[in-house]
Write a structure and sequence with these properties.
By secondary structure, the chain is an alpha+beta fold. It contains twelve helices and twelve strands.
Length: 385
Amino acid sequence: MKRRIIPVMLVCLIGIVSLSFWPQKNRLTVYTHEPGPWIENEWQGNLYHSLLQDLNELGIPGLQVSVIRRGEAWDLALGTVDYDRTTNITPGHLLRVGSVTKIYTATIIMKLCEEGLLSLDTTIDAWFPDLHHAQDITVKQLLNHTSGIYNYTENWPLLLTTTFLPRKHWEPDAIYQYIIKGNPYFAPGEKHYYSNSNYFLLGLLAEQVTGKKYGELLQDFILTPLQLQNTYILPEARPPELLITGYDRDLFPLGINKIKPDNRGWASTAYAAGGIAANAADVSRFLQGLFTGRIISPAALEQMMEFEPFTDEDIPAQSGYGLGLRRLVVEGDVLIGHTGTIPGFGAAAFYCPDKDYYIAFLGNVSLLDQARLLRTIVKTMQAPL
């Protein structure tokens, strides 16, 4: 009986939700804006025009890109903040970064381990006693997605409610109830399965062991030491003035759904698994700070980079997963970082240790083909200066 009821409920909800979507006929016009004199050399010009082609062919409204090459940073933006192509996006605008947040959360956890408040081998039953197998799940297994914990973002009633009630603020305990009521996928440590629940729990864990909010820990451990002033955890922070609207056309294929700056639903649902908003410049500089030892010790960073050969069918280039870090091979270059997708936005942030360059890009549309954009940028990074 339940198998019949649930599909009927979903169809009804989809019908209701579709009333708030634009019809699919709303298409982007071609963006042809020339960058102007701030392009200083040939490789920057080549990257801009290659990305311009990607932007138009992939139907991305706006895109921010920040690259750090041989210690020099270059921040660019192309496209617009809106589907009507009326207002150009700038490097200063803020976008939601989705699961790139996981690098920040993992870094916070490693700081807590360094301070003796946690250990990677600590089991989580003291904090989450009503969670399936909590007595056997370690902090490390949360970090590398080997806990087997049910992924709450695969719960369609939750997703549809969040879509239909965009200003609803989900309290952490409400999301936690979805997590503990879901059936585990496997016994802890048995295999790898990417679950946002792992990082949601890591955020709660960090708050419980310190008595501080996630945003305070983000500020204390990362933003203040690196002097980053354009990074926020939403909705804990009030929506910044420069936060732009995102557009979802793929995750819920019902038309074009606007994810406005005052949308609290997705941010409160994502939390430590995907709730950060920033600009690409801040993201690339965070990566640089992380990999140059300005946040955690070399030993802690080495632990984060102990990759298991876990692959991901959604990311064919992935050859391993560490602690909050993916390892990809793109055009022959090994990249370490994370991708991010949240309704209305797509992102990626990676470091190439062999050639010492950093990449961060953020776009205001879901599923913006991170693989293609990474290939475009990596090819430019491989070209001689």
